[in-house]
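Incident log, support desk, overnight shift.

02:14 A customer reports that sequence design results differ from what the structure should imply. Their input is reproduced verbatim below. On-call engineer (initials T.W.) acknowledged and began investigating.
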């Protein structure tokens, strides 16, 4: 086993002299966690800038305006006196949402006719649009129920609360499990951290693999499988340390709860690192030097994150896209990690472990063949 010890020591010396590798491996995910952690500290979106055009200005319309003012979802920036002025506020981005109460609002409501409140929003930001659209429906539904109950109570001399229960006997009670506040910190941060962690492994392993291609004489006496084995062990160990640091920052620094056991979390990470390392051997075999590899791997996180189904469900993709997504290690890792953190378990845990293992074996086999050919070609050119 002298070859193993020799290669292992050599790899550690290279890491010591090429500090980019540990910086990539340990720094990429931490940088994402710090930057995006500061961004998502508020956790939920509130106080969306809003403008109101109350064309009627009656007691009923002013009561509705007060409901919008009291909502955490809206931050009333101003009140206008025309629809054109209201649209100008949206066009100039002085407001993201606008509410127009028509001049016959209370009259139609009192006579039993259908009264419409116009709600305008800037659809260029779907997050703000979805939040405010949901909030306006809740406010108007509650206002309508109380207005109808009040009118019926006055007309028939009944108790308003009793009438309300009769008019609206069924109410929806929303209870969100595992992310009660629907906070973006819990939703996005884990996925972004896993993408950055993957990039760190790719950069480190890629730099090491291509160093041998660019310096063929240094390890010419060793077989390709020996070189790959030692590099895999070294960067697997460093990757597990890096992952442990990420988990510590996520749980202790950002306060994201871990519902599952550390054993389950690290077992999944162990196979994921092997799959990413194997993929890296496969990927680097198509590049003659480190610089073109770096240019290519910088582009990799975008398709990997999209295909992973983290933000857009894989089930909602086309069949071809679903098939392609299966070849990205992140597809079988990021969502499962989020479920382990927030739910405490994942129904796809074993399946994802199996798929990551299959990807690791497949990429090691194909990548080993391609990497061996690349080493031979490199040695031939140097001879």
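02:41 Re-run completed on a clean worker. Output:
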């Amino acid at each position: 086993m002298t070859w193993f010890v020799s290669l292992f020591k050599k790899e550690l010396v290279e890491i010591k002299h090429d500090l980019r590798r540990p910086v990539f491996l340990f720094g990429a995910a931490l940088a994402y966690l710090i930057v995006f952690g500061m961004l998502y500290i508020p956790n939920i979106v509130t106080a969306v800038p809003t403008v109101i055009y109350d064309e009627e200005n009656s007691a009923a319309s002013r009561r509705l305006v007060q409901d919008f003012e009291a909502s955490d979802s809206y931050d009333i920036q101003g009140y206008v006196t025309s629809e054109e002025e209201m649209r100008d506020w949206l066009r100039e981005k002085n407001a993201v949402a606008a509410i127009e109460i028509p001049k016959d609002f209370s009259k139609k409501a009192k006579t039993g006719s259908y009264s419409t409140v116009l709600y305008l929003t800037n659809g260029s930001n779907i997050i703000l649009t979805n939040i405010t659209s949901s909030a306006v429906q809740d406010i108007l539904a509650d206002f309508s129920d109380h207005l109808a109950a009040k009118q019926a109570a006055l007309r028939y001399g009944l108790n308003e609360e009793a009438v309300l229960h009769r008019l609206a006997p069924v109410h929806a009670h929303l209870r969100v499990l595992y992310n009660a506040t629907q906070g973006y910190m819990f939703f996005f941060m884990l996925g972004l951290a896993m993408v950055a962690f993957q990039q760190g492994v790719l950069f480190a392993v890629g730099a090491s693999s291509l160093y041998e291609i660019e310096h063929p004489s240094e390890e010419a006496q060793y077989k390709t499988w020996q070189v790959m084995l030692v590099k895999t062990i070294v960067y697997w160990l460093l990757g597990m340390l890096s992952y442990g640091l990420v988990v510590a920052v996520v749980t202790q620094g950002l306060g994201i709860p871990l519902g599952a056991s550390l054993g389950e979390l690290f077992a999944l990470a162990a196979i994921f690192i092997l799959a990413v390392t194997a993929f890296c051997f496969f990927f680097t075999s198509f590049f003659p030097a480190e610089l073109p590899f770096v240019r290519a791997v910088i582009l990799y996180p975008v398709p990997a994150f999209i295909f992973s189904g983290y933000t857009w469900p894989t089930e909602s993709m086309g069949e071809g896209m679903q098939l392609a997504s299966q070849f990205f290690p992140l597809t079988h890792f990021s969502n499962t990690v989020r479920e382990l953190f927030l739910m405490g378990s994942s129904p796809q845990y074993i399946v994802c472990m199996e798929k990551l293992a299959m990807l690791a074996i497949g990429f090691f086999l194909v990548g080993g063949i391609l990497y061996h050919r690349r080493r031979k070609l490199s040695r031939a050119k140097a001879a």
